[in-house]
Amino acid sequence: MTLHFRVIFNNLDFLLEGLKMTFYISVFSLIIGFFIGLVVAFMRISKNKLFSSIAIAYVEFFRNTPFLVQLFFFYFGLPELGISTEPVTTAIIALGINNAAYNSEIIRAGIISINKGLVEGAESLGFTKFQIVRLIIIPNALRVTFKPLGSNFINLILTTSVAVSITANELMSNAMTLSSNTFRPFEIYLTILVLYCVLTFSLSGLIHFVDRKFISKGIS
Amino acid sequence: MIQVRNVSKSFGSTNVLNELSIDFDKGVTVIMGQSGAGKSTLLRCINGLEKIDGGDIVVDGLSINEKKNVREIREKCSMVFQQFNLFPHLNVLENVTLSPIHVLGIEKKKAQEKAMRFLEMVGLSEKIKSYPSQLSGGQQQRVAIARALIMEPSALLLDEITSALDPEMTSEVLEVIERIAREGTTMLVVTHEVSFARRVADRMVFLENGKVLADQNTEDFFSSNNERIMRFLQKIEFN
Ligand SMILES: Nc1ncnc2c1ncn2[C@@H]1O[C@H](COP(=O)(O)OP(=O)(O)O)[C@@H](O)[C@H]1O
Ligand SMILES: [Mg+2]
């Protein structure tokens, strides 16, 4: 077998276009996933039984069903209810909602890790509630949550490839289009494997760096 | 300076403070009493960490029943806890400067200079870059003392601050407290350390079941012939 990487160079723009879309989908679903995750985490630890039950149901439902089915449900099922969205928007929403279920458990662990004494220590010095959240609670909760949330984000990036099934024009979709036009699956999929790997590997390096340098200082 | 007037506090059905009244003025007051007598609750009420059910606490003319006074009262009464409660994500210098910067609005440079003075006072000027997890319990507690002192409070509230420490660290912390006491800092000290109390106290208060059973000068207290106080002192000296 002879390898023809020329096909890659000739269509590099098309693949990079896909990579950009993958990045775009990842970032927006990251944001959605974080904020829903935050809300669900607070609902989960709330004393209100209704809130905590909803939160538990949410987390268990989305962690115990295949993402592909969730995506199809959002894309093909919801239009039946008159809610219809573009493939990219659907992918962002589905990924965000799915990721939130995982994030909320991590954020909950972060919140629980803040002990009462730490907050009282701050209260007794006269900090306002808002200052306590900003200066004490968030930085300490981040120490517990930053790296796990980071791994979730990396998973999220890899999972964007599932959006090929609704042709969201991200990296995997474009690779598939290219492959069926050029009959060079080996070169094309090898290339995008490398692209995914470079993207997530450098991101995980960045996450570790930021964690060590700014977040986990003082942890022995 | 601190007036506690008919203060009641209960947790559920447990009455912890029963219409307790007492005034604290300049100097060092040591508070003793059996475990569960309400000593921590009293200090925590003065600091506004527990809300009182009845009565009033007035600190430098500010009533704690007015919600807007609570933060100012906390600035005036700095508390040090048994479990140190340092900020684990900040180094020693940052732990001490966080409240002057954000609560008192002092400029960072000035706060750091000021922090250095207090860290020197507690013997930790070499450790400013260390994080709490890198310090011994005694060192952590001394940081907590510096963190309280930098607020220049009207009164320092110390709640069994050596109970979580082994004897060696206990004495290093108590030495610091004695030094601060000699400089005329007003303190309310809950402790079971009898010889320390004898040296440092201007006044002794004995709590029992949320009431003041004795309130006298140090010498009288330790030669008291109140049976319950004698029994208490015997018990803790025996330990
Ligand atoms: N947050 C709380 N919830 C319920 N009960 C409490 C709480 N804090 C203190 N108590 C009870 O109040 C009583 C007095 O406690 P405390 O003030 O800590 O006593 P001391 O410090 O003298 O040992 C104890 O019986 C204790 O169990
Ligand atoms: Mg106590």
Automatic annotation (TrEMBL), chain A:
<feature type="transmembrane region" description="Helical">
    <location>
        <begin position="188"/>
        <end position="210"/>
    </location>
</feature>
<dbReference type="InterPro" id="IPR000515">
    <property type="entry name" value="MetI-like"/>
</dbReference>
<feature type="transmembrane region" description="Helical">
    <location>
        <begin position="149"/>
        <end position="168"/>
    </location>
</feature>
<dbReference type="InterPro" id="IPR035906">
    <property type="entry name" value="MetI-like_sf"/>
</dbReference>
<dbReference type="InterPro" id="IPR043429">
    <property type="entry name" value="ArtM/GltK/GlnP/TcyL/YhdX-like"/>
</dbReference>
<dbReference type="GO" id="GO:0043190">
    <property type="term" value="C:ATP-binding cassette (ABC) transporter complex"/>
</dbReference>
<dbReference type="Pfam" id="PF00528">
    <property type="entry name" value="BPD_transp_1"/>
</dbReference>
<keyword id="KW-0812">Transmembrane</keyword>
<dbReference type="InterPro" id="IPR010065">
    <property type="entry name" value="AA_ABC_transptr_permease_3TM"/>
</dbReference>
<comment type="similarity">
    <text>Belongs to the binding-protein-dependent transport system permease family.</text>
</comment>
<feature type="transmembrane region" description="Helical">
    <location>
        <begin position="21"/>
        <end position="43"/>
    </location>
</feature>
<keyword id="KW-0472">Membrane</keyword>
<keyword id="KW-0813">Transport</keyword>
<keyword id="KW-0029">Amino-acid transport</keyword>
<keyword id="KW-1133">Transmembrane helix</keyword>
<protein>
    <submittedName>
        <fullName>Amino acid ABC transporter permease</fullName>
    </submittedName>
</protein>
<keyword id="KW-1003">Cell membrane</keyword>
<feature type="domain" description="ABC transmembrane type-1">
    <location>
        <begin position="19"/>
        <end position="207"/>
    </location>
</feature>
<dbReference type="GO" id="GO:0022857">
    <property type="term" value="F:transmembrane transporter activity"/>
</dbReference>
<dbReference type="GO" id="GO:0006865">
    <property type="term" value="P:amino acid transport"/>
</dbReference>
UniProtKB/TrEMBL annotation, chain B:
<comment type="similarity">
    <text>Belongs to the ABC transporter superfamily.</text>
</comment>
<dbReference type="InterPro" id="IPR030679">
    <property type="entry name" value="ABC_ATPase_HisP-typ"/>
</dbReference>
<keyword id="KW-0813">Transport</keyword>
<dbReference type="Pfam" id="PF00005">
    <property type="entry name" value="ABC_tran"/>
</dbReference>
<feature type="domain" description="ABC transporter">
    <location>
        <begin position="2"/>
        <end position="234"/>
    </location>
</feature>
<dbReference type="GO" id="GO:0016887">
    <property type="term" value="F:ATP hydrolysis activity"/>
</dbReference>
<dbReference type="InterPro" id="IPR050086">
    <property type="entry name" value="MetN_ABC_transporter-like"/>
</dbReference>
<dbReference type="GO" id="GO:0015424">
    <property type="term" value="F:ABC-type amino acid transporter activity"/>
</dbReference>
<dbReference type="GO" id="GO:0005886">
    <property type="term" value="C:plasma membrane"/>
</dbReference>
<keyword id="KW-0547">Nucleotide-binding</keyword>
<dbReference type="GO" id="GO:0005524">
    <property type="term" value="F:ATP binding"/>
</dbReference>
<keyword id="KW-1003">Cell membrane</keyword>
<keyword id="KW-0029">Amino-acid transport</keyword>
<keyword id="KW-0067">ATP-binding</keyword>
<dbReference type="InterPro" id="IPR017871">
    <property type="entry name" value="ABC_transporter-like_CS"/>
</dbReference>
<dbReference type="InterPro" id="IPR003439">
    <property type="entry name" value="ABC_transporter-like_ATP-bd"/>
</dbReference>
<protein>
    <submittedName>
        <fullName>ABC transporter</fullName>
    </submittedName>
</protein>
<dbReference type="InterPro" id="IPR003593">
    <property type="entry name" value="AAA+_ATPase"/>
</dbReference>
<keyword id="KW-0472">Membrane</keyword>
<dbReference type="InterPro" id="IPR027417">
    <property type="entry name" value="P-loop_NTPase"/>
</dbReference>
